[in-house]
Design a protein that fits this description.
0% of the residues lie in helices and 50% in strands. By secondary structure, it is mainly β. It has one domain. Strands 2, 3, 5, 6, 8 and 10 form a 6-stranded antiparallel beta sheet that branches. Strands 4-1-11-12 form a 4-stranded mixed beta sheet, with no helix packed on it. It has a two-stranded antiparallel sheet with strand order 7-9. Strand 5 and strand 6 form a beta hairpin. The chain is globular and about 40 Å long.
């Protein structure tokens, strides 16, 4: 069970993630990045049963050509270097990007939560597809 990202773009894609972390406060979220995914590859970014964590997360992705996979209205401060810090810690954060929201409780029209989720980026910039598996009771 996991959160996976697939790169169907022709360039390496870099990903940042915001996800629930009860050890952080006052906002119980962590921000982490940058994972690189070469073209045609899949990367398991978060190896966890998505039914056991905070249902809300968000990601931002870009490549070396200036293409982005971003959302609207969910702007978070991050650094251009690798980072792993609580959401409220803005140490060295010099960039602000609009993240794409993910909701792990939106599977199967709300009847079941996701066990895992695969986010496919590309082949064109900004194109996003999601596919998840659910545990049927």
């Amino acid at each position: 069970m996991a959160l996976n990202f697939v790169n169907h773009n022709q360039n390496t894609i870099w990903i940042a993630l915001v996800y629930g972390d009860a050890g952080c406060g006052p906002n119980q979220f962590r921000k982490q990045g940058w994972w690189s995914i070469p073209p045609g590859q899949t990367l398991n970014i978060w190896d966890v049963d998505l039914q056991t964590v905070n249902r809300h997360a968000a990601f931002y992705a870009d490549d070396s050509s200036g293409n982005t996979w971003s959302g609207t209205g969910n702007a978070y401060q991050v650094t251009n270097a690798g980072f792993n810090q609580c959401f409220d810690d803005n140490t060295n954060c010099n960039q602000q990007y609009n993240f794409v929201p993910l909701d792990f409780d939106r599977a199967d029209n709300g009847n079941h939560n996701f066990n895992d989720l695969t986010v496919t980026l590309g082949p064109t910039p900004g194109q996003i597809a999601t596919e998840g598996s659910v545990r049927i009771d």
